[in-house]
Amino acid sequence: MSLPQCPKCQSEYTYEDGDLLICPECSHEWKEGDAAAEDAQSVIKDANGNILADGDTVSVIKDLKIKGSSSVVKVGTKVKNIRLLTDAADGHDIDCKIDGIGAMKLKSEYVKKA
Predict the structure, then answer these.
(1) Which end of the chain has fewer CB atoms < 10 Å from its terminal CB, N or C?
(2) In degrees to the nearest 10, what's the CA dihedral of 90, 51, 28, 15?
């Protein structure tokens, strides 16, 4: 009997404990049917509900003040070649580079797919 890999760290050393599957490397616990549900939850959507993917181009829908600076990312600024972050604890789930400003992270709720 082959057990599935850990959905969090892809470790092959998972084991069963009752009805839970456990990864000894990252301590992640899940039920066998939950792996598909976690993948569905990790889908990142823009302000209009469109699904975003790595490499997409988005535009900013609200003026965003840059913390620690007097600069502002203006409405309509196009951001090319975004990278999605699935483990963003602070809500900043887009990693990007904005021309004239540099590398930064954005929240998907403030962008729309271009």
Answers:
(1) N
(2) -170
- Find all residues with CB under 8 Å of 9, minimum gap 6, and list them: 23, 25, 26, 28
The proportion of the chain whose per-residue pLDDT surpasses 90, expressed as a percent, equals: 49
Question: Do 68 and 26 share a structural domain?
Answer: no
Q: Tens digit of pLDDT for each residue in 15-25?
A: 998 888 988 98
Task: Provide the domain count of the chain.
Answer: 2
Residues 76 and 108 in one domain: yes
Task: Give the domain range for residue 90.
Answer: 57-113
Distance CA 46, CA 12 (A): 33
DSSP characters for 18-60? TTEEE-TTT--EE-TTHHHHHHHHT--B-TTSPBP-TT--EEE
pTM (global) more than 0.70: no
